[in-house]
Structure formats: C-alpha cells, structure tokens
Design brief:
Distance between the termini: 8 Å
Largest sheet: 8 strands, mixed
Low-confidence stretches: none
Number of domains: 2
Cofactor: FAD
Pfam families: DAO (PF01266)
GO cellular component, one term: cytoplasm
Number of strands: 19
Shape: globular
Organism: Nocardiopsis dassonvillei (strain ATCC 23218 / DSM 43111 / CIP 107115 / JCM 7437 / KCTC 9190 / NBRC 14626 / NCTC 10488 / NRRL B-5397 / IMRU 509) (Actinomadura dassonvillei)
CATH topology of the largest domain: D-Amino Acid Oxidase, Chain A, domain 2
Family: Belongs to the DadA oxidoreductase family.
CATH superfamily of the largest domain: D-Amino Acid Oxidase, subunit A, domain 2
Strand content: 25-35%
CATH class of the largest domain: Alpha Beta
Structural class: alpha/beta
Helix content: 25-40%
Radius of gyration: 21 Å
Order of helices and strands: EHEEHEHHEHEEHEEEEEHEEHHEEHEEEH
Mean pLDDT: 97
C-alpha cells in the first residue's frame, strides 16, 4: 500500500512507523518545517500509572511495550525505563497512595508504596520532607523535542518513506488522495489525518461538529540540576488529575485539603522530569475555556518552583525557558482517541489529550489493524 499521512507530530509519526514496519510506502506531509505542537511541548512521559481502568490503561500498557521495542531500534529516542514517584507530603495524600498500592490493579500498573527512607533510596535527589511515595515502575520517558526527528530519520532509511514539510493539506482530492497548498496532489490507498490541535481549516470542513476540544498548558525547563533525578516525580496534587486514583480517599483529600489558590485557579499539578542534559522539565497548568490567553502567567511558575524545591530539599535551578502549548482532547473522557472516516479511504485520528506521547504507538497500531494495513 501507499499511505498518505498528514501531521508529523508523534501521533502521525507513529502511524508512519507502523505503516512502514508492515511493508508499506508512506508519504508524510507536515505544514511546519518540523513538528511544533504538543508533541514537542510535553514531558516526554510514558505515563501508565494514572490511566483510567479499561481501554485507556490497556492502550498505555501496550504503548509502553512498543516504546521499548522501538527504542531498541532507535536509541536516539532517549528512552529510559525510569519509573515515577508520586510524593505524599500529607496524611490525606498518603492515604490515596496507600489505596492505589493496595488496589486490585496495583500489580498491573507496577505500583509499590514506599516509606520516606525507601523513597530516598529510589531517588536520592528527593531530600525534602515527605511521608513516602507511590512508585510506579511501569512509567518511562523519552526526549520529546527530538523523538519525532529520530523516528523520521530511521524511517527514511527504509527507502519507503518520504517526509515533505511546509505542506499544508487543503482538501481531499479523491479516494486516498490529498491536495496541498503547493497545488500538488498526493495519491495513495489511504489517507490518515493526524492534525493534533489544528482543528480548523480542512478539519472543520470535514467534521463541523468534531467532539474534540483544545486544552492549553504552561510548562518550563530549568538549568541542569547538577545531580541525577532517577525517576520522574509528581506531587500529591497529581492524584487529583488522573482517573486511576478516584475513590473515597481522593474525595477526602479534596474535602480536607483544598488546593492552594494558584494551583486551583490554574488547575495545576507538579510533574518533573529530567532531560538528557540534566535540566528539568516542570509543569503544568490546564486551561479549557477558549479564547486562550496569549501570554504566560508568572504565578504558576512561582508555585511550581516552590513545590519542586520542597520535594528536592533545595532551590530549584533557574528556569531556562518557558512555553505554552495546546493539545486536542476528546470531549468524551472515556475515549482514548477520536478515530473516524472523513471521506473515501480517509480517516481522522485526533484528540488523545495529554495521553498523546504515552499512547501514540498503541493508537497507531490500532489504526493499522483496523484499516487492514
């Protein structure tokens, strides 16, 4: 087959990976010079622990296997099976961690409840005061700013992959075909649109009432920490944002320990991941109501620095850069992704939300299976 894939973020690139791996030819179109959306503006987390039971967890677990397999072929992904620690600093947060570690899915998710001493053994950089942590051995990470380029370079070595950048697709030009803004028609046996948060233009024409919303976030990267952060790290507020932790203990946390005003107003949690150069990616906020702010607010960064410093037991390194990003999320939270036909031999795959980096290999594999590649 000859497959036309639109969008060179992680979701589109993983669709290209599966197509080429199954012996097909791929023409890959990207409207920017390279991916610039949520695929590069994220933590690079392969985050299994907090996923909702059912299809979401199944997709995350399958994706975790695929990421490791792909990384054996593409070491430049920077894949690290580092696990994660969600650190509890209060009794209510610890109760949520205890409930998760004692739940029926604990082994499936790789959970283990750690004492303060054991937490510091697993991640010696966490020298702040805390009551313990929920360790998720299944979690991992890659380097988000370079992962797509590394995958595309490996695909190029197949001889069956062509990446064309600076090409915005304007319309479907017949079964299995698209026309770009250069007037060129690209013909194949199937078209897969992985347009991310770009929901206007052709996407709006094809699906005027697309059940997908956009979400804005703020993140930052620090200077190098100067020591190894052996796991990714989350604070107790993260329990509030991941469906795996729902239950009476989380209800008690919400009632007895409201978030600080800045965290509440910006719908915040702390996630902290060390990059290959020793710097830290920290975040994040969530903004759901469009039109989104065009600037970045400073108080979330001050809050994140304070929380991170308390967990580390030392000042957070200076922030090197700040950014905002937007991702597409299915309006129905029970759906991992929106996947539907939009024309003859053409499909739209979008809306994984904050699960895109984690689940993209499994999402693309499912597309390939369903389309009979």
């Amino acid at each position: 087959m000859r497959v036309i894939i639109v969008g060179a973020g992680v979701l589109g690139t993983m669709h290209a990976w599966h197509a080429v791996s199954r012996g097909h030819e791929v023409v890959h179109l990207e409207r920017e010079a390279a991916a610039r959306g949520a695929s590069v503006r994220n933590f690079g987390l392969v985050w299994v622990g907090g996923r909702a039971p059912g299809p979401e967890l199944e997709a995350a677990r399958r994706a975790r296997v695929l990421w490791q397999e792909i990384a054996e072929r593409v070491p430049a992904l920077g894949f690290r099976a580092s696990g994660s620690l969600t650190v509890a600093t209060t009794g209510h947060e610890l109760a949520v961690a205890e409930a998760a570690a004692g739940g029926s899915e604990a082994a499936e998710r790789g959970y283990e409840l750690l004492s303060p001493e054991r937490t510091r053994e697993v991640n010696p950089a966490l020298r702040g005061d805390h009551l313990g942590a929920l360790w998720c051995r299944s979690d991992a990470q890659v380097e988000p700013r370079t992962a797509q380029a590394a995958l595309q370079a490996e695909l190029g070595r197949s001889g069956r992959y062509t990446l064309l950048t600076g090409r915005e697709v304007r319309d479907l030009a017949g079964p299995g075909a698209v026309r770009d803004d250069h007037g060129q028609v690209h013909r194949g046996d199937a078209v897969v649109l992985c347009t991310g948060a770009w929901l206007g233009g052709l996407v709006r024409e094809l699906v005027p009432d697309l059940p997908v919303r956009r979400v804005r976030l703020q993140m930052a990267q620090t200077e190098p920490l100067g020591e190894t952060l052996t796991t990714s790290v989350a604070d107790g507020d993260s329990f509030r944002y991941y469906p795996a932790y729902r239950g009476p203990e989380l209800d008690s946390l919400d009632e007895a320990q409201p978030q600080p005003p800045t965290a509440r107003d910006h719908r915040m949690q702390l996630l902290m991941v060390q990059r290959a150069d020793g710097s830290l990616t920290i975040g994040d906020t969530h903004e759901y109501d469009a039109p989104f702010s065009f600037d970045t607010a400073e108080d979330p960064y001050e809050h994140l620095a304070g929380v991170a410093s308390r967990l580390l037991g030392r000042p957070l390194p200076p922030i090197r850069r700040r950014w905002a990003g937007v991702y597409a999320q299915c309006a129905d939270p029970s759906r991992v992704v929106h996947r539907a036909p939009v024309g003859p031999d053409a499909w739209l795959v979008t809306g994984p939300g904050g699960r895109g980096m984690t689940c993209s290999p499994a999402i693309a594999e499912t597309t390939a299976n369903e389309l009979g590649w």
